[in-house]
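Q: Got a minute? One more chain.
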Amino acid sequence: MRIQVLLFGPLSAELGQSSIEVELTGDPPTCGDAREALARTHPSIAPLLPSHRFARNQEIVADSEPIAADDELALIGMVSGG
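A: Always. Here it is, folded:
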């Protein structure tokens, strides 16, 4: 399955685009599969991926969450502050 992943902040800046398409395997594929595919196909962002979480359909989810073909998937950098 191919899915579009929305990118923000440092990931978007590193790749020079706001989204990227990845090929996922797995039955069903998970957010973790998407993270692995991104690291494999775009090694320049691999060091940044651990500090980002997936949002599936605008809700932060764990890497173990399954992905459907019509899901909106985004990588969101974790921030802290007061």
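A: The first strand starts at residue 2 and ends at 6.
Q: Perfect, thanks.
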